[in-house]
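During the no-cost extension, the postdoctoral fellow (Dr. R.K.) reprocessed legacy sequence entries with the updated structure-token encoder. One reprocessed record is reproduced below for audit purposes.
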Amino acid sequence: MLKSLLSLLPNLLKSNAIIYVLWCFCIVVGFVLNKQLNIANEKIGIYKLENELIRSSLTTCNAKIDEQNAKFKELEAKKPNLAKITANIKAKQSVKAPKNSECVEIKGYYERATQDMLNKLKENRQ
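Re-encoded structure tokens follow.
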């Protein structure tokens, strides 16, 4: 068999058959490589689309989270100013209405009330 193959080799080299075989081999290799390239391009396209979908869903999720955080901040109860509340309580306790209708007590009541109001006004301006 080897002898017959070696005897055919010079005949193949003399004829154009070797060129046809090489052309067929190149065409088949080109076809296979083209098919693999198309498959790789499709995979790359799919990966790019998935990446864009993930990014878009991530940005929408972040936007919704920011909206919810803003709503939570709006709903958050404001802490009362304890200093002002205690000052108001002290002012109300110090200013008591006169029990009887003596002029001195009525005058003192109004003096204390106006003085406390002036003090509150000064504190609020600061």
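Helices lie at 2-14, 17-75, 82-94, 103-125. The chain has two domains: 15-79, 81-125. The remaining legacy entries will be reprocessed before the final report is submitted.
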